[in-house]
Known about the structure:
The protein is α+β, with helices and mostly antiparallel strands. It has one domain (2-148): Alpha-D-Glucose-1,6-Bisphosphate, Chain A, domain 4, CATH 3.30.530. Helix content is 27%, strand content 48%. It contains three helices and seven strands; from the N terminus they run βααββββββα. The protein has a seven-stranded antiparallel β-sheet with strand order 1-7-6-5-4-3-2. Helix 2 crosses helix 3 (123-148). The termini are far apart.
Amino acid sequence: MDMNATREIAAPRPKVWAALNSAEVLQACIPGCEELTGSPEEGFQAVVKQKVGPVKATFKGAVTLSDIVPEESYRISGEGKGGVAGFAKGAAVVRLSDTADGGTELAYEVEATVGGKLAQLGSRLIDGFARKMADEFFDRFQARVEDDGAA
Length: 151
């Protein structure tokens, strides 16, 4: 499954970049995230609870950043295991650029796969869930960065 979109955030690029690299901000923005520890340099460990269709699972996994160009772009990759529910893994390339009004355009391209019971749910359900999760994450992220000096 692949997704891509852009968001215009009413905050300067350094502030958006700092938020994208903050464990506290990411934990607050990831739907169902119960714990996120680590750092951009060493990677993050996450615990996320989700319900996908009839399948409920607690995913434990790792997230790493690579191809880092400070205040411009990075690749974020992760894999989570949800026990009998299966696994989810994916990566996203995130790019930042300035907008004419002093804000930041955030563009992302996501690729993801699932296996186990999750894969048996069907691609339409999984794709819809993934889009909902991405939209919810970026809605929360945008609101947090615009509202309260998250950096």
